[in-house]
Amino acid sequence: MGNLLKVLACTDLEHGPIVYLDFEHAQPTEAETAVWNQVSAVLEEAHGILAELQSYNGAGQEIREAIQNPGDLALQEKAWNAVCPLVAKLKRFYEFSLRLENALRSLLEALTSPPYAPMQHLEREQALAKQFAEILHFTLSFDELKMTNPAIQNDFSYYRRTISRNRLNNQQLEAENEVNNEMANRMSLFYAEATPMLKTLSNATTKFVSENKTLPIEDTTDCLSTMACVCRVMLETPEYRCRFTNTDTMLFCMRVMVGVIILYDHVHPVGAFAKTSKIDMKGCIKVLKDQPSNSVEGLLNALRCATPPASSCPPHTGDTQASVCDFNTYFLFPVNLQVHNTTPKR
């Protein structure tokens, strides 16, 4: 695979080392095969999940007619028959998030395990790094579609209201056998999130760090920050962008960059926006702002939704306070962010 990735530290990137992570053509080595096969089995379902979500139109018309005519049993039955297969589909999406969580854990174990440093892992295990990126790409794609489709929560809310009403009347519907009360509660929490898949992965990453107490937290955060740095440099450097053979790779890299930033922000003690963060947030945001707004609006919204706003945080000091200030700068003030060169002119 050659020297596709040569990174000594994120701070070295500005001095111009060769930085390129092959998201298009990386193939697993023998050492990667076991984990790669496990994750690949999960990722094979991802395209189908996205296609189903993209074509999800909901049962809005049927639900409105049923609500407006509560005494019309035919309309009630029509709405129920329209909603039930949609809820079954939402259940499949939720169950897929659990399989994705397990796949992420397997990749984190492989990419952070001793004796190699995170940088060495990314160089040695490019195929696993590519799968990690594909999971993030799917996650951001799923959440972008979910955020723009209110029918999902409307359908599920109607389903739960109907179930509750029938229970009060001592009636049980067949659909309850497929989505029982416990499953419905878990699905409700999942879809209540603005970015449910990203929330699942963030929680999984935090859990991975807390359960692996012998593994330094820096091994995980350095893996995430390095991927963010690599994506940023690939996006902002013409000589690396010209290596992309697929027109979708630009958006792929942007989604991966945003995904690892959010995971880093959840796992790192002071977050991604602190001055001590190993992620160049100004550079990353500038890369996004330099793209057409319609292609990055969903990614910027994901950053806003998945990182805690200053108003909801308790008083902070030191680096954490700086993190809150940076968050305000990026997202709370209506400015067009530009990264200015503060080096004095010669």
UniProtKB/TrEMBL annotation:
CC terms in the record's Gene Ontology section: membrane
GO BP terms in the entry: regulation of actin filament polymerization
Top-level taxon: Eukaryota
Domain CYRIA/CYRIB Rac1 binding residue range list: 19-307
Keywords: Lipoprotein, Membrane
Location in or out of the cell: Membrane
Principal localisation: membrane
An example molecular function term from Gene Ontology annotations: small GTPase binding
Membrane topology: Lipid-anchor
Record InterPro entries: CYRI (IPR039789), CYRIA/CYRIB_Rac1-bd (IPR009828)
UniProt record similarity statement: Belongs to the CYRI family.
PANTHER family according to UniProt: GH09096P (PTHR12422)
Protein name listed in UniProt: Protein FAM49A-like
Naturally occurring in which organism (per UniProt): Gouania willdenowi (Blunt-snouted clingfish)
Gene: fam49al
